[in-house]
Automatic annotation (TrEMBL):
<feature type="transmembrane region" description="Helical">
    <location>
        <begin position="86"/>
        <end position="106"/>
    </location>
</feature>
<dbReference type="InterPro" id="IPR046515">
    <property type="entry name" value="DUF6693"/>
</dbReference>
<keyword id="KW-0472">Membrane</keyword>
<protein>
    <submittedName>
        <fullName>Putative MFS family arabinose efflux permease</fullName>
    </submittedName>
</protein>
<keyword id="KW-1133">Transmembrane helix</keyword>
<dbReference type="Pfam" id="PF20403">
    <property type="entry name" value="DUF6693"/>
</dbReference>
<keyword id="KW-0812">Transmembrane</keyword>
<feature type="transmembrane region" description="Helical">
    <location>
        <begin position="30"/>
        <end position="52"/>
    </location>
</feature>
Length: 121
């Protein structure tokens, strides 16, 4: 019963999300990841989707029904905790000649969202 009450209170508070990820920040991320991709001979592309999603989520606010910020999303993903996931999917992508990469992108979103919390102000 208590969980239902908490869910109802939270549900009535949060109306939508607003992301403040600018073009300038995008350009900075692209430059860093292009350099990392060249230096690592393409291996950085296996972890790029994690950090792309993390960057966007960490710049997202939770708004109430009137559009006022009431919290922010905080993605706690780090590569160390998911290195096994990256290695296994890297091998699957190689074995399937890239076909597993389509499924990998969906799994990345699941992993990153599972490591994301809402920090209320």
């Amino acid at each position: 019963m208590n969980q239902a009450l908490q869910a109802a209170q939270i549900g009535s508070r949060a109306a939508r999300l607003r992301c403040e990820f600018s073009i300038g920040q995008s350009i900075g991320h692209v430059i860093v990841w292009v350099v990392l991709t060249i230096v690592t001979l393409g291996l950085a592309l296996l972890v790029f989707p994690y950090y792309l999603n993390r960057a966007v989520l960490n710049r997202t606010e939770v708004l109430d029904q009137q559009g006022r910020p009431i919290g922010k999303l905080r993605c706690n993903f780090d590569l160390i905790s998911s290195i096994g996931h990256v290695i296994i999917w890297g091998i699957l992508i190689l074995i399937t000649f890239g076909i597993a990469g389509f499924f990998y992108l969906y799994r990345v979103v699941r992993v990153v969202l599972s490591d994301t919390v809402i920090e209320y102000y």
